[in-house]
Design a protein that fits this description.
globular; six-stranded mixed beta sheet; 32% helix; alpha/beta; binds iron/sulfur cluster; three-stranded antiparallel beta sheet; 15% strand; 287 residues; single chain
Length: 287
C-alpha cells in the first residue's frame, strides 16, 4: 500500500474517534514495508496504540534500531514454532534456523536494555505447538508431541541473551498446565511470551455454506488489505468479505453505507450471515 493511502486511513480513523490498538498486518510482514516506521509514528501521533507483528525473520540490527527509535508500543514476534525442527516444517524461507534464532535473540537482548529501549517498547514472543487436527492428520506443519521439557528448553534458548531474566512464572505454568498453556507471561521488564496451539488456516472454512447464524468476532475488528479493500475480519486475508475500497471511497462513507449497516444488523441478530462468511466455521446457529 502506498504510504499516502496509509496516512489517509489513519486520518479517517482519527476523525472517527478511534484511539485503540492499530496493527499493520493481516497475514503480511509489516517490517518489509519501506514506510512502516512513518506509519507507526503517524498512528501514535493520531492517538492510537501502534503494535507491530513480525515473524522475526526481518529483525536485522538496523531494523531493531528503527523499531526502538519509533513510537511503536509493542512488537510481537510471532514465531509460531518452538525449535529448529518445527521451524523447518512450517517456514519455507531461505533464512536458516540459526540466523533466524540469532536475530530474535539479539532483538530480545536489546529490547531489555533500558539504555537502548528508551521508549519502553514491549517485546512479546509468541510460540506455537501443534493443535491436533483429526480431519487432516497428514498435515506436517508442527511436530506431533512437544513435551513440557522441550518447550522449556526452547524458551531458555530463545531468551538466552537476555539479562535479568525471570522464567520461574512461565516454567511453573508449563509444569502445572502442559506445553500449550502459557497465555501471556512476563519474562523481564520489557519482555513477555506466550505459547499456544497453532492450527492450519484451511480448517477455518467448511465445504457447505450456511445462510443463518452469527459470529462473536463480527463487529470487533476491521482491516484494510494492501489493495485498499476494507474487510471486517482478520481471517479474511483474500478479501472475500470486502465492503468497499479506500482507494475509491473514504473509510467513514464505506462503513456508513446502508448496505453494510443492513448486513451488520442481519448478522448480529443471526438473521442472515454476512457476505464472505458463509463458509466460515465460526458462524454459530442462533437458538
Ligand atoms: S464468520 Fe468467520 S470470517 Fe466472518 S467475521 Fe466471523 S470469524 Fe470472521
Amino acid at each position: 500500500m502506498e504510504s499516502s493511502l496509509v496516512f489517509r486511513v489513519i486520518g479517517w480513523l482519527q476523525a472517527l474517534g478511534y484511539d485503540r490498538t492499530l496493527y499493520f498486518h493481516v497475514l503480511g510482514e509489516p517490517l518489509l514495508h519501506p514506510g512502516i516506521f512513518d506509519a507507526v509514528d503517524r498512528a501514535a501521533e493520531a492517538g492510537m496504540r501502534p503494535v507491530l507483528f513480525t515473524n522475526g525473520g526481518a529483525l536485522t540490527s538496523s531494523v531493531i534500531r528503527n523499531i526502538l527509535a519509533s513510537k511503536a508500543c509493542e512488537l510481537v514476534i510471532s514465531m509460531q514454532t518452538i525449535n529448529r525442527q518445527s521451524y523447518e516444517m512450517l517456514r519455507k524461507t531461505p533464512i536458516g534456523w540459526h540466523t533466524y534464532l540469532a536475530r530474535i535473540q539479539s532483538a530480545l537482548a536489546v529490547a531489555n536494555d533500558a539504555e537502548l529501549n528508551k521508549n519502553g517498547c514491549l517485546f512479546r514472543v509468541s510460540m506455537g505447538v501443534k493443535k491436533p487436527d483429526p480431519e487432516h492428520p497428514e498435515d506436517l506443519y508442527f511436530l506431533d508431541d512437544e513435551s513440557v521439557e522441550h518447550v522449556k528448553a526452547s524458551i531458555a534458548e530463545i531468551f538466552s541473551q537476555v539479562e535479568k531474566l525471570d522464567l520461574a512464572d512461565v516454567f511453573s505454568r508449563l509444569d502445572r498446565n502442559g506445553p500449550s498453556s502459557v497465555a501471556v507471561a512476563q519474562a523481564a521488564e520489557f519482555l513477555s511470551l506466550s505459547v499456544k496451539p497453532m492450527g492450519n488456516w484451511r480448517t477455518v472454512y467448511r465445504d457447505k455454506s450456511v445462510e443463518q447464524g452469527r459470529c462473536d468476532t463480527f463487529g470487533k475488528e476491521m482491516a484494510v488489505l494492501s489493495n485498499g479493500d476494507v474487510i471486517f475480519c482478520h481471517l479474511d486475508y483474500d478479501g472475500r468479505t470486502a465492503i468497499g475500497n479506500v482507494a475509491e471511497k473514504p473509510l467513514p462513507k464505506i462503513i456508513a453505507a446502508p448496505g453494510f449497516v443492513r448486513m451488520t444488523r442481519d448478522f448480529t441478530s443471526g438473521r442472515a450471515v454476512a457476505r464472505g462468511c458463509e463458509y466460515c466455521r465460526k458462524v454459530r446457529s442462533v437458538e
